[in-house]
Amino acid sequence: MNGHGAHGNDTRDWLDRAVRELPREKASPDFTRKVMERVRHEDARRPVVTRRVLLAAAAAIVIALTVPTALKLFAGRGGAVASGDPGAERRASIEELLREQQRLASDLASVRDSMEKDSSTIYLGGDDSVDLVLDLGQVARRRYGDTLSGSRGTPGVMPASADGRRR
Amino acid sequence: MSRTPDADLMSRVQEGDHEAFAGLVDRHKDAVFGYLCRLTGCRDRAEELAQDTFLRLYQSASRYRENGQLKAYLFRIATNLVRSEARRNERRRLLGGVFSSQPERVNGFAHAAASESSPHEDMVRIELSEKLATAISSLPVRYRIPLVLHDVEEWSYNEIARSTGSKEGTIKSRISRGRRLLRDKLDPLRNGAHR
């Protein structure tokens, strides 16, 4: 005790003494047995909780792994990617690149065709033997490369009988 | 044979040793139960709460860090259970008195050991003991807990302050206020006890 009983107040002496003299209660003889029963019950319940937690964790992992893949699938990456096989994923990428290359080649061919058809020239001048013209198709071919053109010639110089001479 | 320290038993409990836990229960059950009897004023309720206290200890065994204060730790769990119960009772009372708000009556408490006094004095002492137990258990919980820890369990102000997370001055003030309330409740018996 901390000495709070040392005082002259009768009431306080009486109260202190009475409180201190309160009998010490003892737990029932089977108290420990009852507690241990509850402990065993708790242990029996706990693995269920653990299993639930494990199941929840497993489900969370599966969702975390499948959702991004599914999103890729929906974004058009193909079924091979969804399989998660690295080889299949590489093959799918190569196929996609080949498809893209074919698409670009087709686009280039159509551009070349249209340029061949619309090969306009501008007459710049000349005399009876030579016409000076600006071949816009050739300008384009020089700009974008020979792949666009099947014909070659001296740029800017054409025989007087060539198309585009204005008389 | 020397007594196995609480710390060793708790280490074994953390490894799932039921026998070690039963040893701890046996060792501290009377202290926890007695404390709860004083706080609740009811043996049956004290028994339930004491069981809850040990079950909480078992559930939190993996988180328990030994600092040589297992008994204080148990008392803290018990105190928190009583506080929670007091809060529940208060809510019930505020919900229109559907449930009884009266503290449970003391029942079946052991009586003070007979002294070398007259039968009449013993009767008065027993009556006083019962009235006192009832009066303590009816104090507001904020006065009851520090008063019981100090005056019955003989904890120091500092120990109570550390255990309850309050300042020492607050504890002293609450104990003093609790005693005044007790005196007010028990004054009618005072003269009888002194006679």
Give the helices and strands, then pairings.
The complex is a heterodimer of chains A (167) and B (195).
Chain A lengths: L9 H11 L10 H47 L1 H4 L3 H32 L3 E6 L3 E6 H9 L12 E3 L8
Antiparallel strand pairs in A: 1-2, 2-3
Chain B lengths: L5 H9 L3 H23 L2 H17 L10 H25 L24 H19 L3 H12 L4 H8 L3 H27 L1
Helix pairs in contact in B: 1-2, 2-3, 2-4, 3-4, 5-8, 6-8, 7-8
- Succession of helices and strands of chain B: HHHHHHHH
Report strand % of chain B. Answer: under 5%
Low-confidence stretches of chain B: 97-108, 111-115
Overall radius of gyration of chain B: 19 Å
User: What is the CATH topology of the largest domain in chain B?
Assistant: Rna Polymerase Sigma Factor, Chain: A
How many domain units of chain A?
A: 3
List keywords for this structure.
heterodimer; A: 167 residues; mainly alpha; 3 domains; 3-stranded antiparallel sheet; 9% strand; disordered N terminus; B: 195 residues; Rna Polymerase Sigma Factor, Chain: A; Arc Repressor Mutant, subunit A; globular
Task: Describe the protein's architecture and organization.
The complex is a heterodimer of chains A (167) and B (195). With 167 residues, chain A is mainly alpha-helical. Chain A folds into 3 domains: 29-77; 80-118; 119-167, no CATH class. In chain A, 62% of the residues lie in helices and 9% in strands. A 3-stranded antiparallel β-sheet of chain A has the order 1-2-3. The longest helix of chain A is centred in the N-terminal third of the chain and has 47 residues, at 31-77. Chain A is rod-shaped and about 145 Å long. Chain B is globular, with a radius of gyration of 19 Å. The model of chain B is unreliable at 97-108 and 111-115 (pLDDT under 50). By secondary structure, chain B is mostly helical. Chain B starts with 5 loop residues before the first helix and ends with a helix. Chain B has 2 domains: 1-104, Orthogonal Bundle (Rna Polymerase Sigma Factor, Chain: A), CATH 1.10.1740; 117-195, Winged helix-like DNA-binding domain superfamily/Winged helix DNA-binding domain (Arc Repressor Mutant, subunit A, Orthogonal Bundle).
